[in-house]
């Protein structure tokens, strides 16, 4: 049980689940780095700058409340007149808690497409009464149309009404609105500072966040996501890998069956993906292996039969043929010594016929295995054997045709069988063997001048039955033309691709 659990844990399903979890972790880490690089400047720089904008707004609210208890005169130029304006930059004061606001008498200096640090006083009627940049925020005009952030004036003790950031035509700014306390009630002070978030090093961002105590804000979401990664990854891995693992295990079982020698295993194709193609190729492979093994077993059986026939031929030649040859020689000597002895003549004739039949049998038993030269040369070899060993007249007209190995083997054995029957049973002295290809068939004909026979009559031998069986297996036809006293013509037609 423990081994099975261990195999599952380290198997394909376990590895897929682990990969899903690791990928999710990597995505979370990447998101965290991006947040640290791009979002942290809004937290770090934004928090620091917003605090300075808040302090600046409070400082100007207090100064205006003390200096103009009856109200700020319209057109008052606010800000530090000794400072040059720096568009796009927010400069801290010497103390570092507030910002330096430069008083800009003329137009806002170039580059004019960048925001500036500015302070604006808004009266109770919602109009601008004083500004550090009159050309940009003009006194006497409505604050709602001039200022990028909404400013409302109300009666209250001085505190920050509202702050935030906004995009303007000159860039992004952090802004702040404060109500002065005391006798300057009914006045609102608006302060803005340019703010441009930029990518910073995640290590530096983390350090600055730690100093500000803002790490919890950034880590709350990712921490919750990290806690959910493992169960979600396990569930998603199980659901996503279940079918794949089942298909792979089926392949594993099939491969084990093939390894044990079962080449009849087939697998259903369960998809068009790589595993589906592997299943189809696996089934094709097992079928080819099964066919190859069947062919190999057939070749082994055929080789064994050929070897056995060769052994029998050797035994017959070394034993029976030699005895028959000796008997014929003795009978011939006795006939020459006593020409009138009829029994000796019969013995000599019978021994000659037996020796001739034995030679024909040895020729039939002799295995003919093509050496790759083709069917026609193999048939020529058979014809030469009958011509040389038995002294027959053999006429061979053989076209060079190419046929599959099973057809080649069958035609060779049919030729041997037909020639043997012509010699042993028909006492033929002349043979004619022809082969040609026509109309998608190979036609093989063996003709002899022997005694012939009646094809419709029953025969004790099995030679013709074997020929018919071989041709039937190949889907061909057999035609026998023979009659007693006029020889035999055997014609075989076999379809070939």
Structural write-up:
- With 497 residues, the protein is an alpha+beta fold.
- It folds into 3 domains: 206 residues, no CATH class; 82 residues; 125 residues, Histidine kinase-like ATPase, C-terminal domain (Heat Shock Protein 90, 2-Layer Sandwich), CATH 3.30.565.10.
- The chain contains 10 helices and 11 strands.
- It has a 6-stranded mixed sheet, with helices on one face. It has a 5-stranded mixed sheet with strand order 7-8-9-11-10, with helices on one face.
Secondary structure topology:
Elements: H1 2-9, H2 12-67, E1 76-77, E2 118-122, E3 128-131, H3 143-146, E4 160-168, E5 171-178, E6 188-194, H4 202-212, H5 215-259, H6 274-337, H7 342-365, H8 375-390, E7 393-398, H9 405-424, E8 430-438, E9 441-448, H10 463-473, E10 477-482, E11 488-495
Parallel strand pairs: 1-3, 7-8
Antiparallel strand pairs: 2-3, 2-6, 4-5, 5-6, 8-9, 9-11, 10-11
Would you tell me the structural class of the helices and strands? alpha+beta
Low-confidence stretches: none
Number of helices: 10
Strand content: 5-15%
Mean pLDDT: 77
Q: How many DSSP E strands?
A: 11
The spatial strand order of the largest sheet comes to 1-3-2-6-5-4
The number of distinct structural domains comes to 3
Task: Note the run of SSEs as H and E.
Answer: HHEEEHEEEHHHHHEHEEHEE
Distance between the termini: 58 Å
What is the overall silhouette? rod-shaped
- Main β sheet profile: 6 strands, mixed
| Rg measurement, Å | 56 Å
Helix content: 40-55%
């Amino acid at each position: 049980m423990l081994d099975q659990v261990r195999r599952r844990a380290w198997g394909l399903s376990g590895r897929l689940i682990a990969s899903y979890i690791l990928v999710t972790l990597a995505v979370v880490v990447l998101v965290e780095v991006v947040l640290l690089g791009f979002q942290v400047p809004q937290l770090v720089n934004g928090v620091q700058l917003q605090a300075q904008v808040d302090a600046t707004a409070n400082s100007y609210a207090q100064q205006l409340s003390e200096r103009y208890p009856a109200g700020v005169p319209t057109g008052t130029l606010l800000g530090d007149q000794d400072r040059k304006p720096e568009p796009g930059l927010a400069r801290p004061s010497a103390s570092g808690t507030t910002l330096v606001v430069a008083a800009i008498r003329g137009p806002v200096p170039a580059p004019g497409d960048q925001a500036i640090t500015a302070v604006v006083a808004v009266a109770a009627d919602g109009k601008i009464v004083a500004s550090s940049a009159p050309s940009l925020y003009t006194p006497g005009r409505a604050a709602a149309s001039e200022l990028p952030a909404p400013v409302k004036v109300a009666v209250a003790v001085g505190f920050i009404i509202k702050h935030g950031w906004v995009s303007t035509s000159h860039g992004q700014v952090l802004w702040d609105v404060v109500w002065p306390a005391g006798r300057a009630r009914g006045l609102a002070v608006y302060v803005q500072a340019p703010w441009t978030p930029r990518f910073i090093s995640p290590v530096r961002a983390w350090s600055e966040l730690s100093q500000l105590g803002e790490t919890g804000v950034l880590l709350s979401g990712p921490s919750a996501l990290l806690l959910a990664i493992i169960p979600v990854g396990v569930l998603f891995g199980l659901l996503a890998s279940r079918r794949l693992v089942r298909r792979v295990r089926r392949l594993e079982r099939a491969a084990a069956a093939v390894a044990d020698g079962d080449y009849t295993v087939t697998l259903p194709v369960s998809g068009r993906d790589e595993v589906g193609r592997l299943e189809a190729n696996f089934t094709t492979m097992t079928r080819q292996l099964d066919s190859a093994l069947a062919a190999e077993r057939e070749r082994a059986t055929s080789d064994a039969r050929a070897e056995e026939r060769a052994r029998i031929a050797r035994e017959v030649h070394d034993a029976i043929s030699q005895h028959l040859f000796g008997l014929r020689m003795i009978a011939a000597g006795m006939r020459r010594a006593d020409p009138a002895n009829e029994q000796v003549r019969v013995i000599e004739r019978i021994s000659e016929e037996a020796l001739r039949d034995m030679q024909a049998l040895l020729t039939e038993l002799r295995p003919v295995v093509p050496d790759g030269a083709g069917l026609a040369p193999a048939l020529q070899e058979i014809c030469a054997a009958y011509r040389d060993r038995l002294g027959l007249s053999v006429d061979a007209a053989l076209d060079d045709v190419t046929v599959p190995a099973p057809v080649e083997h069958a035609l060779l054995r049919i030729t041997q069988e037909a020639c043997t029957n012509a010699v042993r049973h028909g006492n033929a002295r002349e043979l004619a063997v022809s082969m040609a290809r026509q109309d998608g068939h190979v036609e093989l004909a063996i003709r002899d001048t022997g005694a012939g026979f009646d094809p419709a009559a029953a025969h004790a031998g099995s030679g013709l039955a074997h020929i018919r069986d071989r041709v039937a297996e190949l889907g061909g036809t057999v035609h026998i033309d023979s009659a007693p006293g006029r020889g035999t013509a055997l014609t075989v037609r076999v379809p070939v691709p």
